Amino acid sequence: MNSNCQSLAEKSVSQPVCIVGLGLIGGSLLRRLTAAGYPAFGWNRSASTVQQAAADGMDVSGDLSATLQRAARENALIVMAVPLFALRDIVSQIAAHAPQCPLTDVVSVKVEVLRIVQEAGLAATYVGSHPMAGTENSGWGATDPALFENATWVVMTGGADDVTARVRDIAVAAGSVVVETDPVSHDGAVACISHVPHLVAEALSVAAVTESVGGGDTALRLSAGSFRDGTRVAGSAPALVRAMCEGNRDAVLPVLAETIGLLQQSYRELSTEGTCETLVEAGYAAHQRYRTVMNELGR
């Protein structure tokens, strides 16, 4: 075991970053930080991903123990960029090889990640984070160094100041706008604007191919912008969608119940009164509020 991390207080603009997991988010971050001149390096379990990343000039390895030992020697900020279902094993390896290194993650849930980190005894050097960016695609081939440009990067409050500073630093270097919140508030928010929308997109996709209600190939051939936009995230890898929704179950369930309730109310009104006015008007007003907030943010 090698845990010879330097003091976290020894800060410099060129401090190393170790990214564990080189999918869409982790790979895009490695590309961006490397382009920005950071001494950034990474690991991925897939040999093909390592080969692709190396061919693109990235400093990568398929040896997790060696990568974490290097992170310990160089006092690298370790960024965990693996799905929630793989996180516990990664945290265990970090505890064994680099327990004193500053630590963050880019997983889309925060309460469960914090629990895993606490159980491993790494909470003192951990500050959770979540870049609000992504696409329905995955893997090294989907990576994009501009992915985080003008995106919100959420950083959790309550962590050590020096670790927080390093997490904020990579977020800014990635081109993002940093917003701070706590894990519970974060998980409630992403249930509303990310996790349940994924489930709704799945449901719309299934309905569109259900022939008993008019779906099928003809419906798909007629589809245009509203269907494409409303179902885009249904193209995400099912394992990743399940990981974030199931990992955020406590926050997802009430939002899902609210969404179902609104649709059921609209169903009753449309079937008994011939109108869907209540939901449509409320939805329009809510979307206007969303547009106002985006305008205030310059997006």
Question: How would you characterize the overall build of this protein?
Answer:
By secondary structure, this protein is of the alpha/beta class. It has 2 domains: 17-181, NAD(P)-binding Rossmann-like Domain (Rossmann fold), CATH 3.40.50.720; 186-297, Orthogonal Bundle (6-phosphogluconate dehydrogenase C-terminal fold), CATH 1.10.3660.10. Helix content is 54%, strand content 10%. The chain contains 12 helices and 8 strands. It has helices at residues 24-35, 47-55, 64-74, 84-97, 111-119, 161-173, 183-208, 217-222, 225-231, 238-247, 249-273, 277-296, and strands spanning 17-20, 40-43, 60-61, 77-80, 103-105, 129-131, 152-156, 177-181. The strands form 2 sheets. A 5-stranded parallel β-sheet has the order 3-2-1-4-5, sandwiched between helices. Strands 6-7-8 form a 3-stranded mixed β-sheet. α4 runs parallel beside α5 and α7 (183-208) crosses α11 (249-273). The chain is elongated and about 70 Å long. The chain starts with 16 loop residues before the first strand and ends with a helix. Mean pLDDT is 93; it is low at 1-12.
